[in-house]
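ok so for the tutorial part 2 we go from a plain amino acid sequence to predicted structure tokens. step 1 is just haveing the sequence, like this:
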Amino acid sequence: MPHSAGSLDYLPVGFFGSVMGLTGLSAAWRLAHLRYGVPGAIADFIGLIAVGAFIAIAVAYLIKWLTAPEAVKAEFRHPIGGNMFGTVFVSMLLLPSVVAPASLFIARALWSTGAVGIVVFAWVIATRWLRVPQLHSNVTPPWIIPVIGLLDMPLAVPSLELRSVHGVMVLGLAVGMFFTTPLFTLIFQRQLLEPPMPDGLKPTLLILVAPAAVGFSSYLATTGNMDLFAESLYALTLFLLAVLGGHLRHLPACCPFSVSWWAVSFPLAACTIAALRFASYDPGRAPNGIALALLALVTIVIGWLFVRTLAGIARGELRALSI
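step 2 — the prediction. this is what the tokens look like for a chain of 323 residues:
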């Protein structure tokens, strides 16, 4: 079927993953400002880029929805790609921490919409899994995105000055942590026993680190306690990052640059945020060293992804990058 001019029917909804990564990077630099006194303007600047990226991608995807609705329906029904719609709601859950200093009303409205959206989306996806038999070959890291979305619900609440949503925070934490275990097991089993994932999906492997990293931050936001369970989640985060992070070096060889490479951005940012929070609790040389090393790494990685994406768009390669 030929592509209609101006329809943007090729644009993947997973492009919102770039907003997640940029917002996570802004949050990491905000924590670095509080912990090490680095200029807060760095976090503000990255946050402004994240807001701009969200608006631009939202407008572009709205154009796709209006001009090529069948393409949107096909993407949503896809057993793998459909999970990427969760990136829309996760972006709306993360951005309020950036927007709150400028407008608490907009931040609260954005978070409320994202919270309702991710709960409904997770319910729809879980219902689909139980209603329709799934192929084991389709069980890939994007399947865990709805879980990450639920775990993201508590993160921005402290900056929103909302005291009546503790139950919602517990809901996100409880359901997210509950579903992490079976989904992680299924994905890990698929990696061990099935043929390798297509090259375009290989960057998504780092998503498996996110539930532990986000779960750590969400647990702290919900309970306010750095207890043994929180420390265990942080230890698990570091172990999974050590196991899966090595795959990053294989990306240039396995597949050409595309939008899917942004899948590494938010997991890295979530690990950095967890490390910075843990360093505030345990200000030893090792925790601070890990936090600073991860901050440098995630800044370089996301900075490169951002520049490479802008360069590709400027050269008219958006269609190629969306494959």
